[in-house]
Amino acid sequence: MTNPDRRRIAGHLLLLASLLCLALGALLAWQVQAQQDERSALVMTVDDAIGPAISDYFQRGLELAEERDAELVVVQMDTPGGLDASMRDMIRAMLSSSVPVAIHVAPAGARAASAGTYLLYASHVAAMAPATHLGSATPVQMGGGGLPGLGGEEENEGQTDDASAEEEAADPEATDDTANDEPRRGETAMERKVLEDAVAYIRSLAERHDRNADWAERAVREAVNLTASEALENNVIDVVARDLDDLLEQLDGRSVVMDDGQRTLATADLAVERFDPDWRTKLLAVITNPNVAYFLMIIGFYGLIFELSNPGSLIPGTIGIISLLLALFAFQVLPVNYAGLALILVGLGLIVGEALMPSFGILGIGGIVAFVIGSVMLMDADNLNISLPMIGGIALLAAGLMLWVMTRFIGLRRRAPRTGQEELVGSEATAVEDFEGKGHVRLMGERWNARSTQSLARGQAVRVTAVDGLTLEVEPLDAAS
């Protein structure tokens, strides 16, 4: 083949490669444009208490929906309530979102209690599946029986106040005194402040979407509840839908209120894209679990104590610092009662003090009592509390440690004081070589000169029978026994 032929073939191949590249680029561009033009609904799932992990997951989902220019965000929700701060972060993100958000309380048997009721009122579309309910939005105060603080980062909501109902059932005659009571308004100035703030907040959400504000106020003041059908009849929700397909079908053509005005939804034939919790959400949920945070604090405390007791070991100190930092992060976002936290730390300090300078149980018992009381006080909420078996288990371990230290201490006090040669006589040693007559043994980590009237093998256990200067007289342990 001549050179001109080679050049001609090379030119043809180059042209063909260029055409293939252009075709591939056009195909990719068409696919990208098709994906951008495809109308979709982003579906998220919230099936736990509202907290920092759920809030982070929800806000990242809204950002993704805005990037994808989604037609609608659907949140399938089943929650008992949760933290007020996290709930408000989610509501702020929802109200400022450029993509409409539909919250669907589903599947059957799900609930939107407490914080879930606020989120449902804040959504652009409020929907429920049959056999679901919402309500019980009365805030509950941490550390005491009254109202919570709906409005602070250290407060919690998500619990219903059923004490009055139980008292009424137990004492029917008391109904005469309470039947005509007005809706709950709070007993103290702080409770009234918190309650009125919660009422105003949920009424403002109801008015924004033209929903029943009076019932919303009752949900806060009286902790009332509604089923899905009752909520629809009372203009609390917009739709009762069995599942996602039914919801999208019913929402087609419905108008919703957005920041920039009214918007008509076109939900027919939407492609469904699911955004499930990833490892980041799951890790954050684990760290902010009250039981995990509590355990991390205990591990961190003892890790630092062991490191200070044995400087240079590094491993306990490293584990302790990491655990303590993770626990502090969790306590920053959880509704922690700091009096309870202080009691826990005091209790742990007293238990360690009992181990270092035994006081016949005075410090130890006081430490265990303070530790248990502080643990119970630390987080007192139905959805964010510390497991009582965990508290009891750690307290029993601390009591066992204290009992072991006390028995060792009492045993040492009962033992007759011995020093010098008296301490060595009767001690067990190990022959470091084969010998008969004179040789060497290892006693208490030290190498000693030794004499024996019997043959000894290397590694054989011996007992000290006498001390002659720096030489030990020994005999085989089996002979001594």
UniProtKB/TrEMBL annotation:
Composition skew (Acidic residues), residue ranges: 152-180
Region (Disordered) residue spans: 139-189
UniProtKB keywords: Membrane, Transmembrane, Transmembrane helix
Span of domain NfeD-like C-terminal: 422-476
Protein name per the record: Uncharacterized protein
NfeD integral membrane domain ranges (all copies): 291-407
Comp. bias regions, Gly residues: 142-151
Protein's cellular compartments: Membrane
Stretches that traverse the bilayer: 283-305, 312-330, 360-378, 384-405
Entry-linked Gene3D superfamilies: 2-enoyl-CoA Hydratase, Chain A, domain 1, Nucleic acid-binding proteins
Membrane topology: Multi-pass membrane protein
Domain NfeD1b N-terminal: 43-144
Pfam families hit by this protein: NfeD, NfeD1b_N, NfeD_membrane
